[in-house]
Write a structure and sequence with these properties.
Strand content: 5-15%
Largest sheet: 5 strands, mixed
Oligomer: single chain
Distance between the termini: 46 Å
Helix content: 25-40%
Structural class: alpha/beta
Order of helices and strands: HEHEEEEEEHEHEHHEHEEHE
Number of strands: 13
């Protein structure tokens, strides 16, 4: 029953969004001189994207198009992708996130092992325990510069909280592992909603994937759109105190819910909720000090030098659009 309501709500929102775009095109757009750099226009693009990919997928594609529509882009013909061009044969619909429009110039910096003896580590590794196919790769690798910055963040933490450590949950993630974990998360979400993962309809699977992709990057094999963890430039972390006790952040890593949003407890009404927010702020401060940027939807995810990192720097005004070039693509 819960999914039926969710699907009904999704379809209603899709209709409302389409009507709003149509109203803009008829009543507001004609009042201004043509200024879009692309054909079809951004409003036409948004309308087609929502009709073709639904609310979440359409809005992500439309948002990426709007980001491209700036004086530093030559413009031109830029149609909405066909469904099969943004899909994966086993994963269903895969929609580009806005940051994946960022160009990559990878210097091929090597992956290096994180010196785990200096950090706290989740043991056994959660994804390896589930059977994720790492092969001869390690989840505790990072690009060398990113690893150095993680050490910098650890030093900053211990300056203010002696004995405390950053706890490493996950770092490097091959594409095959990303695909495994997206599918695993979809199965878990389906079961949580009382559905049989083996008998999902195409519409049910797409709706579930839209929710999963709010937190998990699509396992794209395209070198221009790598998942952040597959670059070796992203790391999932939390904190432990001097006794090795995990600091309570108010939700577990990888939870697919609004509690994962970094500022979910910003308006906390209890001392406990305010404590959660204070802990998340501390984690963000030490990682920001070392040059990392936090994922907008995940309190635990930080990166340096990948597409998401560059996109966040541009959004906050630290970088100009012309400087928007990511250092790290898919790790070698």
């Amino acid at each position: 029953m819960g999914l039926k309501l969710k699907l009904w709500e999704t379809q209603l929102l899709k209709v409302v969004l389409i009507r709003a775009i149509q109203a803009y095109r008829r009543g507001i757009s004609p009042l201004f001189p043509p200024s879009c750099r692309f054909y079809p226009t951004c409003s036409e693009y948004a309308l087609t994207a929502v009709e073709r990919f639904g609310v979440m997928g359409g809005l992500q594609l439309a948002g990426a198009r709007i980001l491209r529509c700036n004086p530093f882009h030559p413009g031109g013909y830029d149609p909405v992708p066909e469904l099969e061009k943004v899909s994966h044969e086993t994963m269903g619909i895969m929609v580009l996130k806005p940051y994946q429009q960022i160009r990559i110039e990878d210097p091929h910096e090597p992956l290096v092992p994180i010196p785990l003896e200096l950090f706290a580590v989740v043991v056994p590794h959660p994804y390896e325990q589930l059977g994720a196919p790492y092969g001869d790769k390690s989840p505790y690798w990072l690009r060398k510069t990113v690893c150095d910055r993680l050490l910098m963040a650890q030093k900053q933490l211990q300056t203010h909280h002696p004995g405390w450590k950053i706890q490493i949950f996950d770092a490097y993630r091959p594409i095959a592992v990303q695909e495994f974990m997206v599918e695993y998360s979809l199965i878990q979400l389906a079961q949580h909603q009382g559905l049989d993962p083996e008998t999902l309809t195409k519409e049910q699977r797409q709706t579930l994937l839209e929710e999963v992709y709010q937190f998990w990057a699509a396992p794209s094999p395209d070198p221009a759109t790598p998942p952040p963890h597959s670059t070796g430039a992203a790391v999932d972390v939390t904190l432990v105190d001097e006794m090795g006790t995990p600091i309570d952040m108010g939700s577990p890593i990888d939870e697919i819910s609004p509690r994962s949003f970094p500022d979910y407890y910003a308006q906390g009404k209890t001392a406990q909720e305010q404590g959660y927010h204070k802990h998340r702020q501390l984690l963000d401060r030490i990682m920001e000090f070392a040059g990392f940027k936090r994922h907008p939807r995940e309190w635990w995810h930080f990166s340096h030098g990948d597409q998401l990192w560059v996109w966040l720097k541009v959004l906050e005004g630290s970088w100009h659009q012309s400087e928007a070039i990511a250092h790290y693509g898919k790790a070698p």
